[in-house]
TrEMBL record:
<feature type="compositionally biased region" description="Basic and acidic residues">
    <location>
        <begin position="55"/>
        <end position="64"/>
    </location>
</feature>
<feature type="compositionally biased region" description="Low complexity">
    <location>
        <begin position="69"/>
        <end position="91"/>
    </location>
</feature>
<dbReference type="InterPro" id="IPR011681">
    <property type="entry name" value="GcrA"/>
</dbReference>
<feature type="region of interest" description="Disordered">
    <location>
        <begin position="40"/>
        <end position="169"/>
    </location>
</feature>
<protein>
    <submittedName>
        <fullName>GcrA family cell cycle regulator</fullName>
    </submittedName>
</protein>
<dbReference type="Pfam" id="PF07750">
    <property type="entry name" value="GcrA"/>
</dbReference>
DNA sequence: CCCTGATTCGC
DNA sequence: GCGAATCAGG
């Protein structure tokens, strides 16, 4: 897979929206989590709370003279690059998990009254209003309101369909690591998937691999076919 | 163990 | 430029 414009755009949007690299990789498909991270860094959209970089400003921690760790020699103790990047001054969305829910600051009194004078000057600005098409009232000079906060990051898959499957593996919970063997009938309220850890390299867990992949017996020695996924033809 | 992002470096 | 391997914290 190559990084087309669309894929880069999606990566950027999801990354800035707070999705994890794994989620982005899964969504894009054909790339690994590392690929996503690598691309994100190459694109310059770093940052976001990293579990491993929580600390900062280390005054020369006396570490053991660890030998050259893995491969080639590290580039010595290069001075920390200034990293000249501070373009996107947009307010960072809160880390995942928190629900900032930027409330528009319920103003007990509308600001149309006290926001007229500019800060730092006693001169009240002239109150100029006009009504636009549709009846909205235009702001007057010096009346700027706080910028609308960016929309909070949205979980793409927040809600479970129903309580009875709240802890079951549902379609949107599927990934490469859980067994996709269907349990029950699609469309029914409790339809879900096995969800066990997969037999590595297979889409099913060990048990269901045994059901999905069966050796062919010689003709004439066939046993009755095993139960099909979904429990077989619907019985009513 | 699982997860996360950061970094390195051979390709 | 790409991304696997690796590191390192939660």
């Amino acid at each position: 897979m190559s990084w087309t414009e669309e894929r880069i755009a999606k990566l950027t949007k999801m990354w800035e929206g707070g999705s994890t690299a794994s989620q982005i990789a899964e969504e894009l498909g054909g790339v690994s989590r590392n690929a996503v991270i690598g691309k994100a860094h190459r694109l310059g959209l770093k940052s976001r709370p990293s579990p491993v970089k929580a600390n900062e400003a280390k005054p020369a921690k006396a570490k053991e003279p660890a030998p050259a760790p893995r491969k080639a020699a590290p580039a010595a103790a290069a001075p920390a690059a200034p990293a000249p990047q501070a373009k996107a001054a947009l307010p960072r969305p809160e880390p995942r998990g928190t629900a900032p829910a930027p409330k528009p600051a319920a103003n007990p009194k509308p600001s149309t009254e006290n926001s007229q004078p500019l800060p730092g000057r006693g001169e009240p600005m002239p109150r100029i209003h006009s009504v636009g098409p549709g009846g909205f009232v235009r702001q007057g000079p010096g009346e700027q309101q706080a910028p609308i906060p960016p929309a909070p990051p949205r979980r793409r898959v927040p809600a479970k369909p129903s309580p009875e499957v709240a802890d079951k593996t549902h379609l949107l919970d599927l990934n490469d690591r859980v067994c996709r063997w269907p349990m029950g009938h699609p469309g029914e309220a409790d339809f879900h998937f096995c969800g066990e850890k997969v037999n590595p390299g297979f889409p099913y867990c060990v048990e269901h691999c045994g059901r999905a992949y069966q050796a062919q017996l010689p003709r004439g020695a066939r046993r009755p076919p095993p139960p099909l996924p979904f429990g077989g033809p619907r019985v009513r």
